[in-house]
Fold each of these.
Amino acid sequence: MQLLEVRDLTKRYPTFTLDKVSFSLEPGYIMGFIGRNGAGKTTTMKAMLNLVHRDGGEVFVNGRSFFENEQACKSEIGFVMGEFDCYKNATLRTITDVTRRFYPDWDQGAYETYLRRFALTEGKKVKELSAGMRVKYALALALSHNAKLLILDEPTSGLDPVSRDDLLDVFRSVIEDGSRSILFSTHIISDLEKCADYITYIKGGKILASTDVLTFREGYRLVSGDREHLEVRRPKLVGCKEHAFGFTGLIRAEDEEAFRSCKIAPADLESIMIYTEQEDSHETTVL
Amino acid sequence: MKQLFYKELKLCLPVQVPLFFLFAAMLLIPSYPYLVACFFTCNSIYYLFNQSVGNNDTLFTALLPVSKAQAVKARVRFVVTIEMVMFLLLVPMILVNHRLNPAGNAAGTDGNITFLAAALVLFTIFNVVFIPAFYRDENKSGKNFLISTISVFVWIILWEGFMIAAAVAKGQVPFFAWVAENLDAYPVTDSAWRIQLVALAVGALIYGLGTCLAARKAVRIFEQVDL
């Protein structure tokens, strides 16, 4: 059974539409949710949790309809939206004391372990924490009530590289028993390369791809060549950057044959995202 | 839901709420429009909502395992608790007021049971005007408080004006004489007790129905709001 299933989730704004977003996630995996700023990542996450009123679609958590069992489903979800930005004059102790009462499965031992791991002091007020520490506190709360599903919006922004790496280790350890999953959005694609099993890519409110990382990367190739190679093959390029000696670009794997005379390399997630975002605008960056 | 009530108490309660209960002591002033004392409770409730905006309380609450409807209902219950504490504090103040000033209040309604009914109507007006408007757009809480303040003061002026008119014209108009004797006086006769208790029951009914309607409307609005 899927731990998370999003079906045709739709939200219409005057200038933007989240258009029938669908994807699913099995227990025991990490899914990276990627897309440009304004692509609809946060709107999708908020609509999934009923924070944004949806115009259509369904969300199932552990086989139950979220919107028909909101309270029970929320108990099984840990949600983090960037840094913890509430009750700035309250101490972490007070906020935790309030929060834990809402979760019958609150694990005080796990909470204290995360406090130590993240070097958080309970006696401090929220306003006394740095941006990175606020993210860590939000994660400590989300990780301490035995949530089956963690939905994290930009959890690694604001963290230094050591903390980010530590956090990715935490993510791996959270899912290793095979019963829990993580959906997280980020702009730091290198974080996904390190820990994501699946990728869901949203562009302009529509899902472009939702598949495992290997299949996603195998669907593209990076090519480079000189300018004379470029002109005849330009229509087959997903995106491209020109420079004094030629070009570097992204192609679909099925078009590899047409670029045999060029240098071809496996595509990484960041390149796929950068060049794909050029596709609609037919941009060509000239360096 | 007791967890939400606990959250209101530990994380949301501004200092103005307990502090402004002291305005119940305004009933000890010999001549004063006593309903104004109740307005300060509304003012402290505004601080509760306004501080919640600054604390991102709405989003924090929405992420807890509760529905939007439960979040709104818990806040309304907390508001009702604050108003009922003020209501209960007014009772001993009325008794002391009568001891200190047995001749009654020249500047408006006397401290009596009818006054308590008028206080309940005042709270109802505030709840009906302010609470649903807050959930429509919490960033406009200042404007919504201004509108609710104007509504509350229209009631204060009408009520206190009516009582002053009754006191002034009781010799000329029989109805005003009846009002002055039965509604705008400390109840001494059985008839005055009965009439004032009926007034209190009507006030309580208005308060109960009005606040329930305000809560239902706020829930309906909040369900459609995007956070």
Note: The longest strand of chain A covers residues 4-12.
Amino acid sequence: MLNKTERQKEQILRMSGVNPLKCMRCGKCSGTCPSYDEMEYHPHQFVYMVETGDIETLRNSDSIYKCLSCFACVDRCPRGVEPAKIVEAVRLTVIREKGVSRITPNEIPALLDDETPQQLLMSAMRKYNK
Amino acid sequence: MKVSYFPGCTLRTKAKDLDNYARKCAEILGVELCEIKDWQCCGGAFVSAKDEVASKLSSVRALAAARDAGQPLVTVCSACHNVIKQTNDAMQNDEEFAAKANLYMSQDKDPSEAYNGETEVYHYLELLRDVVGFDKIKEAVKNPLTGKKIAAYYGCMLLRPGKVMNFDDPENPTIIEDFIRALGAEPVIYPARNECCGGYVILEDAKSAEKKSNKVSESAANHGAEIIVTACPLCKYNLEKNGSSVPVVYFTELLAEALGVKEDTDAE
């Protein structure tokens, strides 16, 4: 029987389709990440920490919300690891839990102005809510 | 030529210009945009998790509708294009996902009509390049934008992931510069043209979005751009909100101006 960490790791790898063992820890993903400065844990660390089972640390870090989904790390990884997909999978394990949403619909009106495109609201529902 | 057209939520609301000019110019260039009946919002962001199915069904429905009409599917908004193209790739290459999506679809579609990624998806710019041809556009230009220095802003969603989007070389794209040249203007090459503006995190971390968008607009300004051109309503909003010193316009507006139909479209 798998323990909780092993279950989470299995789930994250299945959702993301990422094989962390392909990573050679060159750090190019983190070097090219536009959100590097905002992140406590960086894309290459996500890959390594999921592999070693240090998943709760990632789940409890705001770093999961700092990814821009720009896919720069995916395109620039020399080993095809696709770190953005693992970041997203960790985030989803958090926001899919009952009662957990990073931004709730009630908070949204205060964040809008007259020009806010619908596209921003829709993508926020995907990134912060379930 | 007739193509299925997916405008998307923002083109119906805050980005009407992007849509109106696209329709008018297609008419002039001999392409009939047939709006997909009852299309639904693409969701704005592709969720890469393989087990996320329901949120991708609106794209699958649009793709299947185009397949049933025997037409390619054309989008104008960068986000719709990214989401629909990545969903199409998943329908082609991820059997488990496609089987689940088709199970949902079987509520209103016979299982024999299952969708497996048959539709060709074009961004409007690809339609201009690959179907109409930039040479044809050059011939159709009535008001060449001579001498205007225009910076193409690709951002992230048109280009990446490169393997799936297959739009242009993701690190050294040329399609928008070629488009700018076809209109008679001069493209400005600047380093941040394929970097992300950070638009997705505006609600969560406005400072982070400000930093990224300023990097893009300053890079364009420092290289002498007079106009930044984009296909993405979120990039436009983000750059403008954070005070870009260079005006940001939709590529379809430039096209309408060069084809001499901008005023007509505005009057309609």
Note: Chain B is about 45% helix and 10% strand.
